[in-house]
Design a protein that fits this description.
This protein is α+β, with helices and mostly antiparallel strands. Helix content is 33%, strand content 12%. It has a two-stranded antiparallel sheet with strand order 1-2. It has a two-stranded parallel sheet with strand order 3-4. Strand 5 and strand 6 form a beta hairpin. The longest helix is centred in the C-terminal third of the chain and has 18 residues.
Length: 191
């Protein structure tokens, strides 16, 4: 949240890869904008990589049922005053504060600035990922999903197109997997 709780940067973290997706919440009606931007941000991902979303109890998620209806992504809410139930997201928020200080006016922050910060965070080697980066780990999950999609296609040989930079107005980007790396199977627990 920005100065006076009038502006915000939204953070989403994929639990297995720790990939951070972040964007500045557009000004205006918070719940409408949150719904629209979540559908846009999550809509480009394969359904198997966006099965659930765990949120705090902010009023900006008042239209969570519409997110579920549009994407099939189930929305869960943490218990009150229990940030530990979203530990990966809280950690990502701390990393993002290296770029945007707590209490700063975020209404002047451009999407490109948020994208730059998220890309840098996603490119860092992480101990929790055996010194892999979140971007590389997530890319390996996308490869697995693409292979699974091709394997179960209806014989046409067509596969679902994976998202790339510029696929939406938020400018979400994906990194390529490390050359020669064997992609691990995605963890079935996502949040």
């Amino acid at each position: 949240m920005g100065k006076g709780n009038r502006s915000a940067i939204v953070t989403l973290v994929e639990r297995s890869s720790r990939l951070l997706v972040a964007f500045a919440l557009r000004p205006g009606n918070r719940s409408d904008n949150m719904r629209d931007q979540l559908i846009e941000a999550l809509g480009i991902l394969p359904a198997t990589l966006r099965r659930t979303l765990t949120w705090d109890r902010g009023s900006e998620m008042a239209k969570h049922a519409e997110v579920t209806a549009a994407l099939g992504t189930l929305v869960y809410f943490c218990d009150p005053a229990s940030p530990w139930q979203r530990a990966s997201n809280e950690n990502a928020n701390g990393l993002l504060r290296q770029y945007f200080r707590k209490g700063a006016d975020l209404s002047t922050v451009e999407q490109a600035e948020v994208r730059f910060a998220a890309d840098e965070i996603n490119g860092r080697p992480r101990a929790v990922l055996d010194w892999d980066s979140a971007a590389a780990r997530f890319a390996s999950f996308q490869i697995v999903v693409a292979l699974q999609t091709k394997a179960v296609s209806n014989g046409t040989g067509k596969t679902a197109r994976l998202p790339t930079a510029g696929d939406n107005s938020l400018g979400l980007s994906t990194a390529t997997a490390t050359k020669g790396a064997t992609p691990p199977a995605p963890n079935s627990r996502r949040g």
